[in-house]
Amino acid sequence: MRAKIVAVVAIVALAAAAVVVATAQTTANGLPSYTNGYQKWPKLNRKPYTKCGPPCAHAGVKNVYASKRKVGTKYPNGAVIVKSIAQRGDKPGLPSQVAVMRKASGRWRFVEYSLSGSRYSVLAQGQLCVSCHMRVKANDYVFTTP
Asked: What is this structure's pTM?
């Protein structure tokens, strides 16, 4: 019996490790692989947003994309929302910032990336993002509505 329990625990641990590695993969430019092709996803805004705030965490010209549509009033697990934020002088196709929301187990994970050269790195994440998005809890923590 003990050997079976150990075997089950080992299998679960290996599966969990595989999930962590799969979700942690990044693209060549530093964004998570689950954002690949976001520019082709349905856009939530009709035209780019140019105004910001207050508060203003994402100043610039913004477009917001969603990998999945809402089901009722909430986005389903696995949904990814990407906000591209372009500044004057940005290279075409490479916004200076990219904010990402990913829903897993009923909770959003927030990470904002900043472009340095041709690679993105984490600018902000977690509680800093959540504290602002709490204001739109009724809209499943998403500011942009289609």
From this structure: 0.77
Of 39, 47, 87, nearest to 65 by C-alpha is 39
State pLDDT tens for residues 87-138: 877 767 789 999 999 999 999 999 999 999 889 999 999 998 999 899 999 9
Which of 69, 48, 46 minimizes the C-alpha distance to 58? 48
Say how far apart CA 52 and CA 57 lie, in whole Å: 8
Closest CA relative to residue 25, chosen from 34, 17, 13: 34
Rounded CA separation 6/11 (Å): 9
Q: Which domain holds residue 96?
A: 35-139
22 within a domain of the structure (yes/no): no
